Amino acid sequence: MGGLALQSVGCSGQAVPDAASLAGTWKSSRLATPLHLHANGDWEIKADDGAVLQYGVWRLEGRQLVWFIRLNGGLVREANGLVSFGPQRFELRELDGSVTRFDRLE
After folding, report:
1. Which domain holds residue 64?
2. Is residue 38 part of a domain?
3. 49 vs 70, which has greater pLDDT?
4. 87 vs 33: CA distance, rounded Å
5. 3 vs 51, which has greater pLDDT?
6. Cα 54 to chain center, whole Å?
7. Distance (Å, rounded) from C-alpha 90 to C-alpha 100?
8. N or C: fewer beta carbons within 10 Å in the chain?
């Protein structure tokens, strides 16, 4: 993947990635299996054999990555603040205050 596309947001002076910059396959510090963020807004966690373990949709809202998790026939919304980002790594603040790191696999 090429360089990270950035946009300025408001007067905070902080830049945020655009959604296309986060599309790809990532290794999470919390998961044993890769997370796939698709450019069309879908996401999925797949086992080594290709079986989908969890899935939903995602989008960026300013400096938050918002997940919609498909669970029991409905959608659960979770928003995590973007702590840091770069072309090969980003970090999110979880609801419990901890930080999850994502390293690009492809």
Report:
1. 6-104
2. yes
3. 49
4. 20
5. 51
6. 14
7. 9
8. C
Whether residue 1 is contained in a domain is answered as no
Mean pLDDT over the full length of the chain: 86
Quote the pLDDT of residue 9. 38
The 3-class SS string of 48-79 reads CCCCEEEEEEEEEECCEEEEEEEECCEEEEEE
Total structural domains in the chain?
1
Statement: residue 67 has pLDDT above 50: yes
Distance CA 26, CA 58 (A): 14
For residue 94, tell me if it sits in a domain: yes
Q: What is the pLDDT of residue 17?
A: 84
Q: Give the end-to-end CA distance of the chain in Å, rounded to a whole number.
A: 7
Q: Answer yes or no: is 96 within a domain.
A: yes
C-alpha separations of 32 from 29, 49, 64, 73 in Å: 8, 13, 24, 25
Residue 19, token pair as written in the block: 């959604």
